[in-house]
Amino acid sequence: MISETLIYTLSIIVISVIIDMIIGEIPDKVHPVIFMGNLITKLKNLLPPTRFSGLLIVSITIFTFTSITLMVLLTAAMINTWIYIIIASIILSTTFSVNYLIQTVKGIQNDLQEDINKARKSMSYLVSRNTEELTESRITSAAIETLTENITDSVVSPLFYSGIFGLLPYGLLSSICVAVIYRVSNTMDAMLGYKTKELIDVGYVPANLDDILNYIPARITGYYVVLAAFILKFDYKQSYDVMKKFADKTPSPNSGYSMSAAAGALNITLVKEDVYELGYGETDLSADKITEAIQLTKITSLLFILTIVLVYLILIFLLL
C-alpha cells in the first residue's frame, strides 16, 4: 500500500535525523563521504584536467556510490523490513549533518575566545580564503558565512530530495539513492569546484551540477531563515529585505540566499574581502555573534525537518 510505503519512508527520515542529533557522524573509517573523497582524488590524479574528465568523474562517482547503495539496500530488504529501515536510516544520516555543522562552528567560536591564531588555523580548514591575518571580526564573519551557507548544502538539500523522491514510485529506494547522489555531487563541488588554473576545467561539470541541484533548496532555505528569525524574535523583516537585495551578490548563484537572510536577521554585514558584503548591519563582529547564528541555524533546520514530517503525515492520513 502507498500509505505503508510513506510510513516506512517517514520512519527512515525521522530515525536518520535522530541518529544525526544524538550520535552524530559515523567513524571516518566507514563514512561514505571519505570514500567518495578518495575516489574523486584518485580519478582527478588519473585523468587530464579537462571538462570531459570532470564529466567522467561525475559519472563514475555517482554510478559507483548509487550502485553500492542499491546493493546494500536490496540485500537488507531481503533480510527483514526492520533491518532495511535501520540500514537505510544510517545511510541517509551520512548525507546530511546538523550536529557536525554546529559543533564545527562552535569549535571555531571556542578557539576564537581562547587564541586567535588557533582560530585562524581552524578556519583555514573550512574556507578557501587566506586566514593568516584575519581579525576576530573577519573570523566571526567567515564562521557565520560557513554555518549559514551550509544550512542548504548540509541539511536542506539532501533532505529536500529525499523527501520529494520518497513520494514517488519506489520511494523507499529512490529517497535514499537521491540523497547519496546529492552528497556525491556536493563533495565533488567542494573538492573540484574552484576557479583555479588547475581546477577550472575539471571542476566545471561538478560545480555546475551542484549549482543546479542546490538552486531550489537554496531559495527555500532563505525563506526558512526568515521564518526562523520571526520565531526567535530576531529582525525577520530586515532578514527578508537583505535577502531580496543581496542574495545575488555572491559568486555562487545559491549561497547568497541563506547567508544574506541570516545577515539581516542578525543585523550584521558579512564580509569576504574583495568578493562581497552582505547586509547593512554592524561590521565589527565579536565571537558572541556566532551563538545567535547557531540558534538561527538550529531553528531553520528544525522547521524544514518538521515541514517534511508534516507533509508526510498529512498524505498518510489522507491515504489511510
Could you explain the architecture of this structure?
It is a single chain. The chain is an all-alpha fold. It is 74% helix and 2% strand. The protein has one domain. The chain has a two-stranded antiparallel ribbon. Helix 9 runs parallel beside helix 11 and helix 10 packs antiparallel against helix 11. The N and C termini lie close together (9 Å). The mean pLDDT is 95.
Short description:
Helices cover 74% and strands 2% of the residues. It is mainly α and 320 residues long.
Number of helices: 12
Structural class: mainly alpha
Overall geometry comes to globular
Q: Using DSSP, what is the number of strands?
A: 2
- pLDDT averaged residue by residue: 95
- Kindly provide the radius of gyration, computed on alpha-carbon positions and rounded to a whole number of angstroms: 20 Å
Helix content: over 70%
The count of domains is 1
Strand order of the largest sheet: 1-2
Give the percentage of residues in beta strands: under 5%
Terminal CA distance? 9 Å
The major β-sheet equals:
2 strands, antiparallel
Low-pLDDT residue spans: none
Write the H/E string, N to C. HHHHHHHHHHHEEH
